[in-house]
Amino acid sequence: MSVLTSPRGKAEIVHCRRTESHDIYCIKSLIRKFTQKLFGRINIIYLLEKANLAITLCNDKEEIMAQGTFLDYPNWNVAKQDDWVSVFRELDSDLPCTPLNTLFMHLFVAVDEYSTGCCKEIIRSVFKAVPELHFIFLTVPSYMSIGSTLITVFDQVGSVPCLTYSEDFTVYVCHRHSHYPQLYIRRARVEDHDELMPVFMHYNTILKETYGEYFLAELIEAQDEENHAVVCEVKGAAVGFMSVCSSVNMELLHACFDLGPFHGLCFPHPEDVLEPPQELSVEGSQGTPLRASLSQNSQKIVEEPQESVTPAAMENTQEKVIGEAASEEASSAGQNGNAHDLEDMEKLRHIPTGHGGSSRASTSTSLLEEPRHFRPIYKGASAAFCIQLFCIDERYEARQVSLDFMNFVFSLFPNKNFCIISLPHLTPEFVLIQNFMRMVPFNNCSLEQDLYVFHRAGLLKSINIRLATLLDTPGVENLVSTLLLNKSILEDLTQYNKARRDPDGTPLQAFVAEVAEQIVGIAVIRNEMDIEYIRAHYNIEDFIYFSHHQREEHGHLYHFALNPIFRHYTKFFLKEILRLGYKSCLYYPVYPRSRDGKFQNPYAHSLTSALHYLVPVRPRRQIVYPLEKLGINAPSKEVSKDLISYALNHTNRKLTLEPKITVNAKIVVVGASSVGISFLETLAFCSHLKFNNLTLISTHGLPGKNLLGAEQRKFLASDHCFNDKDYALMSLCSWVNVVVGRMTGIDRAAKYVVLSKGEIVLYDHLILCTGQQYQVPCPTGADISQHLTNREVPHSSRRRYTGQVPCNHFTLSDEEDCLKALAWIRNNSITSEGNVIVYGNTIDTYTTVETLLNLGVRGPCIFLVKPPPTSTITCINNYSVESAVEDALRGAGVTVYQDAILAQWNDGLDPDPIHSASFTTPTKPFRLQCCMFFSFCEKNVDYETFKALNDACLVYDGRLVIDTNFHTNDIAIRAAGSLTKFSNRYYSNEWTHSNFNSKEIGFQLAAAMLSLFDPTLEPVTEPPADLDRLIPMYKGAKIQGGILPGSYHYLHIAKPAIPSPLEVVMAQPNFGSEIITGTAKSGTYFRIHINKYKMVETITCLSKEPFPTSNYIRLFGQHEQLLNNMCARYDDNLIKDFYSYFTESWCMALFHDRFIDLRKELRQILASKEEETLPSIEQLAHQIEDEDLRLKEKPRAYLRRVYKETIYKPLVERSILDYLHYNYNHLPMYAWPGII
């Protein structure tokens, strides 16, 4: 916040922010004729799309006071955007301008009265936002004066000619030191104490309370060869302090952090152990032996699973590998005028190449395996010093000032090459450590601090990004020598040097980063040839206006490798790729691994350390088109083609100087349920946040491995929250650390989770989403030889089975369980011999029976045994569907038993394996021979989970008790999903998260958490006391589906509700109506329930043929008139088959992912007062409802007449036509005025 005062004495409180698209109208209103003469005729939207930095200045009423736009190349076409440096250096030899330290002003507008103050404030904001920036150039026609405003910050330096026509342009420059003078750094003196103490006390008083009032003076006095204290001063007054020490506990750091990229922060020693014994190997998460050697082969193992990058996500793993591949001395060139750079150059040349690092080879890394991973042993002396204490007045806190400190402290330790600092991981990332590299902690690290490392070479500013040449090949070979895809990188580099194009003719570009005539980075891009597919399948328009980018401006990033010493230049590297390559956007896909755990070649890209500097792009929900029916009106093949699914990451010119907010809080999610995955997805796709410590604890790791294709999916019914394609499109393994294990305990005081083998996982926020699983049934023990009935045996549903689980007993909860069951079926010839018992009365029993039949198990060998129902509501709750399924079971020869209770396995003898099972019924007992036993009789919280919760003293009342904000009785522990129930104080025991859509629950859980980390969100306000007793009601549809016996494809979509029998619901007076086409037994059944408000509330489908499930889900919640007056057409007998009806071209727009945005826009139009003298349509509707209007005609006719006679009708029509026109790539089957 700053205060501007006009010449007339008026004051305005102003603040700066990034320019947004809705600012364009106000910016245009500030453009004057003088502005056009100064900057030329400008398309504001186009300029903002291509700008590296655009700053808007607003007052406290959010009124725009000024705006400035800055790019990394000059305007007025005085130089090519890839070759301006030489032109501007000729102007003044004392201006060492480089692409790193220079921007160009392309537009400045301001309110006339405050223009001078606004200009200075924007310039200051630009220098603060870009710490490396030293010069801002302004180019104007030579016959123009820059005016009284800009002359206050710019100085003339010369003139340059135009490239296209004969006219000279005057060049002005603005220097950083005019706004942020370089601070003087010196050794601290005791007399600095009084000036520095207020700075320390401004932040906290802990040091003073711990070490006494004069701790700072004592620290300064204690300086010696190993301990130094330095200050920065302004006008003779100390405003910042740093204490450094060369004594570092290297043993602790080696035990806790992967320091391989930097040779363990030690000098090389002959006795260093950098490679393990040849016989040492480790097991990967899938049980595949993986060599732990850190030679070139092992580096390939580290890099191989692209989608499975481990702790701290993909970024740090790549940097580790690249760091080992690239020479750590990678170093340095002198920058003009910087004596430290010239001194450091020789020292850096003697740093040896670093080897070593973690051999974690998969996301699914068991903590048990961690101790067996080889870790290098470093015998050399420490090459690092540490920062013990740092503080600076917030008025002078800028990264450039912090680097001024670093220059000085490195000169105090001429024999050290690394500076380290450790911070509590909840400490917000401040400017000093933004140039540091965060080290990857080992899985068993119990330190509650993060370690950051800075290399001496990072002080150098002489990094140069340029197009590669043939002479760069040896340097690139050295850089990438240990990368798995080094051959691919070198082949692309050779192809670029040879032809500048791929063999298929696609333009190809290769760029290198160079320091001290040494290659420290390589990037290879191609023109993005599938941009129409990307636009149609990913929400890239969340980040760009697609129409303002030429096709050739979209680039595809194939390879990116940068020495970790220079990681803080990653964004600069990307920015230079865009500038030198004449690109505006870059795209980087992350492909899933194939079933064998390897890359799906030829689609593999080299791993990139730049991933955290890109933004993940959300995939778009696709319409399932009836292509044959649409014919020539179908979308183009570029839109509808089916490619291998991948997660897309993106950057553009606007994002190159956009910082991300780093969140180091340890967020641990237990359970890979739909709720947990939705929670992680929401956090991972927050483009402006960077979560470094997202961890998932799961028994089988991340789902979505697509282990057996569609085959194993049929075992269990689906809630249609996520499928394998969704997991591939998310690539959560790029952002989430995955620990394979089972939670057995929680230490709330120490904040860690205990796993089954005794390992611990620390947390700051613990999210419990374990859900409920099928449990092993506990036999009653009844002896059926005594002919007992159900009434005569003890009720065992509440008893827990504690014996050994038989090897041929299966409870299926996820795809891994299904895989094991399928393997057992195939390995034990179940399809040709032996009986199978399926015990339970859930929908999963039906889908499992159908899967068994589909696998070849004969129907007479399958026994479906149903226990007594615990409710009057069946799992399908539709008599027509149930009758069709029962007929299909009889037709297949499957024997069905009703109301049977499990009595014994193997007549009470050893149950492993199960050879027979005995059951009691209301009449007579029976005994069945079996080779496999599937149990689906009860879902409950896993006992180990319950015990962990109970031992941690979390309130448990049948389920884990939470409040409306997902909190348990521990503020640091939240829970969601079927594991939970609401507290009794809400008096809503019938409602739990099980009644709602799991994906929506996960999203809302993440939204509740984001308020803790995202400063852009409004602070959460506590609800009024009377509303605090209301549970939240979520609106997403509750969905279940699967393939039932008879090969019926089943889908049921309904609004969240307390379960009730369908007959009872239909008997309610406010039920509405149901419309049905087809019959269940013929496999053409389609039922739609329309509520009393004419909204679609329930959909039930049973079909012999597959149908587009995702399309039908979009029908939920729509008004029947929106479905082409469906009820009227049905009543007129015009609809014979809903399956055919919903493949007609008129409904494609309803299935479009942006249709909901159109509905909101139309609602906003009808709710707005477009004419001052008339109420809005919405207000008229309320007045009619409240009987405030006396009408001579029917209300509906009145509203229709008002709508047609006012401006609303053309506004609505224009909005709809704009929607169809903008989404023409997806909706070419619609016509609009002018197309015919």
UniProtKB/TrEMBL annotation:
Residues 16-266 form the Cilia- and flagella-associated protein 61 N-terminal domain. One of its GO terms (cellular component) is axoneme. Residues 283-300 have a biased composition (Polar residues). InterPro entries: CFAP61, CFAP61_dimer, CFAP61_N, FAD/NAD-bd_sf. GO terms for biological process: sperm flagellum assembly. It comes from the Eukaryota. PANTHER family: CILIA- AND FLAGELLA-ASSOCIATED PROTEIN 61 (PTHR21178). This is Cilia and flagella associated protein 61. It comes from Otolemur garnettii. The lineage of its organism: Eukaryota, Metazoa, Chordata, Craniata, Vertebrata.
